Amino acid sequence: MSFTDPWLDSALIAAALREDIGRGDITTLACVLAGTQARARIVARRSCVVAGLPIVAEVMRQVDPAIVVETLVAEGALVADDTPLATLAGPARGILTGERVALNFLGRLSGIATQTHWCVQATGGKARIVDTRKTTPGLRALEKYAVRMGGGRNHRFGLDDGVLIKDNHIIASGGVARAVANARASVHHLARVEIECDTLAQVREALDAGADAILLDNMDLSSTLPEAVAIIRQARPATIIEASGNIGTDPQRIARVASSGVDLISIGALTHSAPTVDVGLDFNPR
Amino acid sequence: MSFTDPWLDSALIAAALREDIGRGDITTLACVLAGTQARARIVARRSCVVAGLPIVAEVMRQVDPAIVVETLVAEGALVADDTPLATLAGPARGILTGERVALNFLGRLSGIATQTHWCVQATGGKARIVDTRKTTPGLRALEKYAVRMGGGRNHRFGLDDGVLIKDNHIIASGGVARAVANARASVHHLARVEIECDTLAQVREALDAGADAILLDNMDLSSTLPEAVAIIRQARPATIIEASGNIGTDPQRIARVASSGVDLISIGALTHSAPTVDVGLDFNPR
Amino acid sequence: MSFTDPWLDSALIAAALREDIGRGDITTLACVLAGTQARARIVARRSCVVAGLPIVAEVMRQVDPAIVVETLVAEGALVADDTPLATLAGPARGILTGERVALNFLGRLSGIATQTHWCVQATGGKARIVDTRKTTPGLRALEKYAVRMGGGRNHRFGLDDGVLIKDNHIIASGGVARAVANARASVHHLARVEIECDTLAQVREALDAGADAILLDNMDLSSTLPEAVAIIRQARPATIIEASGNIGTDPQRIARVASSGVDLISIGALTHSAPTVDVGLDFNPR
Amino acid sequence: MSFTDPWLDSALIAAALREDIGRGDITTLACVLAGTQARARIVARRSCVVAGLPIVAEVMRQVDPAIVVETLVAEGALVADDTPLATLAGPARGILTGERVALNFLGRLSGIATQTHWCVQATGGKARIVDTRKTTPGLRALEKYAVRMGGGRNHRFGLDDGVLIKDNHIIASGGVARAVANARASVHHLARVEIECDTLAQVREALDAGADAILLDNMDLSSTLPEAVAIIRQARPATIIEASGNIGTDPQRIARVASSGVDLISIGALTHSAPTVDVGLDFNPR
Amino acid sequence: MSFTDPWLDSALIAAALREDIGRGDITTLACVLAGTQARARIVARRSCVVAGLPIVAEVMRQVDPAIVVETLVAEGALVADDTPLATLAGPARGILTGERVALNFLGRLSGIATQTHWCVQATGGKARIVDTRKTTPGLRALEKYAVRMGGGRNHRFGLDDGVLIKDNHIIASGGVARAVANARASVHHLARVEIECDTLAQVREALDAGADAILLDNMDLSSTLPEAVAIIRQARPATIIEASGNIGTDPQRIARVASSGVDLISIGALTHSAPTVDVGLDFNPR
Amino acid sequence: MSFTDPWLDSALIAAALREDIGRGDITTLACVLAGTQARARIVARRSCVVAGLPIVAEVMRQVDPAIVVETLVAEGALVADDTPLATLAGPARGILTGERVALNFLGRLSGIATQTHWCVQATGGKARIVDTRKTTPGLRALEKYAVRMGGGRNHRFGLDDGVLIKDNHIIASGGVARAVANARASVHHLARVEIECDTLAQVREALDAGADAILLDNMDLSSTLPEAVAIIRQARPATIIEASGNIGTDPQRIARVASSGVDLISIGALTHSAPTVDVGLDFNPR
């Protein structure tokens, strides 16, 4: 990994290349002469928010350091259909061998960034859109980066950098009050304690227990959710309020939740169900 | 990995757990006492073709070998909304710590299997549905397993176990005839040679060059595609014909392509854009 | 690692064994017959707080699963000179080959736990003793576990699970206010923001900026430190106050700092300079 | 690792950085702008023998290759309080992110070198000071390097590059004579055979058995130790004599042992209990 | 690995260096001063086909990037006794430390290339010489590269990139017909199906089952083998015919098999029993 | 690796299986039903000294723990043609998938043990046969184990566990005397110093320098070698004498060298050119 850009994980990219290339790209090695040079362009066939061009560059660098990648748009840019995103120049074999892995990363990450962008737009600036832990196994850092490129914010990165007491934790620990107290007594002083509440009764318990943040899960948008927000804002106004569940990526639902006064809206579909963006590589040998 | 079930990759699962758990599940360790036992059920909230239960079992085994997982349906089964898929019994901490990773795998793989199932149904048995290399980096073996669970078949697994000469290879190698000849002269005798053709002229060149299989890419479904099939069947009937491009997961398009007489229909969306299936874990401590 | 006991890292232990054993324990393989059985006891030669017996058990398990380890005292127990801590029974070769690595871990961790214990005692319960990031490279999780066994609490585990703005960050970001604001705007909502202050002016800036926690570094114990505490408690009483710097492990200094009203006292020497505890293995073949 | 400087293990350094940085240095990424440049100095706050500057350089190189490290003193130099040891120049983010790991290595290794230096001074040149296998798990090569920087010499590096028959081996193999004979018969011809003796009787047995080296363990400094040396020097003068046990780092004890005529004095405390040296990083952005 | 030259596996070379160097080349570090420069030549003491010079270069690069390697002959060249193959210039320590590993690779690979060359010569161009899976564990890609350098061709690289139904598969699957059918139904469309036949009856079964390739194993060269060829060529002339078993590297046997009309002759001894070529390093310091 | 049987390296075996199996044994998975059970025997087709049966067992255990391996002869036994060595029972798929890797190890190691055996026989007990560092990259520990199974002894295992000053070291360090002195001053006290001598003048220099062991390299067997032995035995009789170079595996040459009075004869061909032993697997499903 890069220690200063932790999402840019060269080991992950190497693993993806090994997965695809295996014992060697037998088609390219057979069909293309070793010295052949080429130029190519990576093009977004559809409008999208671009995320992943540094990954494309790293893929090509690993395949053959002689390949020069120049990016034509900024990460996070919203581009129109058929926008060239980057040019590649160098050994034809390497470009062809790395093409699919590069596009697989770019299409997926741009898909997440694009989906996030439209969700963020739907809030009208009234709440933050944040991701969840419903990410692709192995790709969490990258997918959370894509969420940022789409204008979203990140929730915790894993089970170790934030306390979120969910319904099952409450059951297993014997109630809201005990769960919050146990968490407070165990974790270090820089961690806030958040708890998921499904009912107004739980919300009141959580407030009594001194939770720093409350996740309102799967509440009815027209009745329970606004009531919960009101209760919290009256009792302890600095409490952070997150809404999740049943929201999806529908702009109207997002707008309604954002208007309810919550601070954050977390959406699993940002990462687990974003359709890939169609990106392609146009190739010209020289 | 398991050498006899190569898709069941325990190292991949360990990496996914490390990614999520990091330095420890601070919420669970704080809220749930070490000896607490629990039972839980994994439930498909929506109808789906199930794929990934062995992964769930392996996730839980790695988190805590004392957790007993029993599956309630067979891999590849088509289930209705709200079908219980498996029961878990054992240490509550382990179940809660492993929950998200288990569900992330199960939801994604069942999503792919389900999407594949409906595409296979659409063919009316007239052609095979096969996947592509447009898979999630790191998850190819698993995603191709999910395609099989959905009734699909696999294309090659990587760049090393099949020759597929694509448009860019043709450009880089100087034409269809030379590309096919080079491939034949280089790869071992157990590999067939397939070539992508965009035009009828290329199809005729490919037939002359003795290609074993021809990929008809992005051809017009009502004119060029059936004509290409006719040309091939007349010239060298044993040639394998694959169609791809612009097909997606729309049943009607799939049905039309299947009726054209091709052997295989390859669909990238099987893996790159399958929506995740909503699966959850219902928890009861004891 | 163990996903439910994350400090019990079997890969770390395997690496330590490889480091010591290299291509094989040539003395033991030469001198001791393969089938020889033995019993042994691990003994603390000096009074200490015990930490690391599960590591001893894992070391022996990795060397030879036939070795049975029984612990005689609880982790975290304060024991007298010459206290037997565990018995080992099984193949003599394995016991001798694993001895040094087991004792190296046990002596070091017990050293940290013991030093922590006396620091905690010195506070009279008026403040928490916490560790720092001044740990041995590679052993952080274990050393922080030893701190807990000694009755201490942990600070953040790394640069990723807590925000602590230190003097150099303030310089690099252009002042206390801007640093706090930037941190708040970037990190997820479950992270508190702590800032290190060397002067009362900085303390006031930090309070204005809304820091959740303030680290009073290297302040004069008789004047500046109590004054800083008073300022904070008056302005924003819920602010968490940590003291560090120049405190070391001297009980009287610790008592004075604890009496000043701070919440936490962080001490690098807990981990970076704890003398090892003399532990030995008494061996009887049978 | 470096194959020509084997103690300079880049994988170990990378692991230490991953341990500290985890998913990213959230404070630095939040507070310091990406392009900010800085200069910094690493300073020894206390007099010490310096060891570890190449590690500092490698840490910074791994964090960001744009950081330029210049060392101001030689490895192994004895420096006064407040001596600048190195300058760093480059991206501020990287310097701040790598600071703690760099200092943790430098402080520990300089601590070992310093402690070794004073032990070597205490011998008056009459015997070699050597280390033991009581090193920190994972850091043996580095710690043995630090011993050399302090003027000490190394004992064997592991269980595979030297034969040392200890008390427990003698018990397990049925006596001194048999142990020596078995060792000689098994190991390759380039390995000498050393045996630990606790009594004069064992010393005589060891001489009869033809041991190449004898370790006098825990003997009374005023009676048994000199007598053992005399017996050995008379019987087989070329035998290498090592003393260990109960010696510690007290200069007077070391001087007495050195005067007894032994060749080597091995001291576990060189590595297992050396206090860290206080080293800091003074930071100036530019 | 190199993704464009997959046989050039830098991780394998690093492992070989670690295996040989362990904790450090104590002879070279002791005897040769750090700054000493040297020149050296690698020389083939005996006539051979050269394979492995890029490995020599990579070995030296990993040991010390300051070593400059210039090759004097092309890979695959047939050279006479005492031919210089490459010059090395740079730090003496690195050259001496890397020497043995470099020569071990070069001698082995050139041995395989040389043995292959003479087998290929023996065919008179009438059949291809191919390798088998009887390669050295860990070195398959390199050894198959050496076969190519010697003018041979490769069989499949592993169990995953080609279907070869052997005698034990036939037994386990219930006969030739069922085995071929099962294989066809399971593997992807780019894989041909080959089956091993020991008798003429099996050959006929295989032809009926539609096998793409038939391996005639251990057949009598004067009777059964030519008869089998005749049967196949008459029934389905495009079937690929491979001969193996009892052939070895004897030129006359190879010539006879080649004359029988088979397409391929596979020879395990190419890789499992090729004598190493005597290559040495002549050294001059400067 | 096994810490008590260090040559039994399970990671190496896993790597060999991954190399051969890749993404899966497509033939076996296609042809053999999942539940099929089988029995098989591993048979030595030719007389040999057996080495590697524990590797066979570990290969099968890794492929499928349900496979039961029973060995029929002892490691190191000299067996006749067509001797059954082990039986296998369990899942047919696993036996077939692991067969080739198991046999590749067994054939190679038995080949080395067999060649060593005949060399040892040729000495008439007058000198030890030892191996060299001319081993297969990655397999050194295993090949040195095979040498022991054949009755040979091992030389040093790597560059780190023995000092052997070779001709190039002498050149680079400025002569025999300086090389020996430098080695003595640098390595730990348990290492003997050996030096390679090509001439009688060098032998005398080495004796003067106090070398513990002298390697007589490539000397004329009828004149220089016996003269060198005589010089050494007269000057310093305890010096260890090793002969190497131009000896090979010819029994008569070995006998002559052994009669010259040397202690050790080192032979690279033991490991670098031992022909593999023909071992096979006879298979019966049940």
Structural class of chain A: alpha/beta
Instruction: Give start-end ranges of low-pLDDT stretches of chain A.
Output: none
Main sheet record of chain A: 6 strands, parallel
- Spatial strand order of the main sheet of chain A: 6-11-10-9-8-7
Which bin fits the share of residues in helices of chain A? 40-55%
Oligomer: homohexamer
The number of helical runs of chain A is 11
Q: Which helices and strands, and how do they pair?
A:
6 copies of one chain form a homohexamer.
Chain A: H1 10-21, H2 26-31, E1 37-44, E2 48-49, H3 53-63, E3 68-71, E4 78-79, E5 83-91, H4 92-123, E6 128-130, H5 140-149, E7 163-165, H6 167-173, H7 176-186, E8 193-197, H8 200-209, E9 213-217, H9 224-235, E10 240-244, H10 251-259, E11 264-266, H11 269-272, E12 279-285
Helix pairs in contact in A: 1-3, 1-4, 3-4, 4-5, 4-10, 7-8, 8-9
Description:
Six copies of one chain form a homohexamer. With 286 residues, chain A is an alpha/beta fold. Chain A is 43% helix and 20% strand. Chain A is built from eleven helices and twelve strands. In chain A, strands 6-11-10-9-8-7 form a six-stranded parallel β-sheet. In chain A, strands 3-5-1-12 form a four-stranded antiparallel β-sheet, covered by helices on one side. In chain A, strands 2-4 form a two-stranded antiparallel ribbon. In chain A, helix 9 (224-235) links the parallel strand 9 and strand 10. In chain A, helix 7 (176-186) runs parallel beside helix 8 (200-209). The radius of gyration of chain A is 23 Å and the shape is elongated. The model of chain A has no long low-confidence stretch (mean pLDDT 96). Chains in contact: A-B, A-C, A-D, A-E, B-C, B-E, B-F, C-D, C-F, D-E, D-F, E-F. The interface between B and C is medium-sized, with 16 and 9 residues.
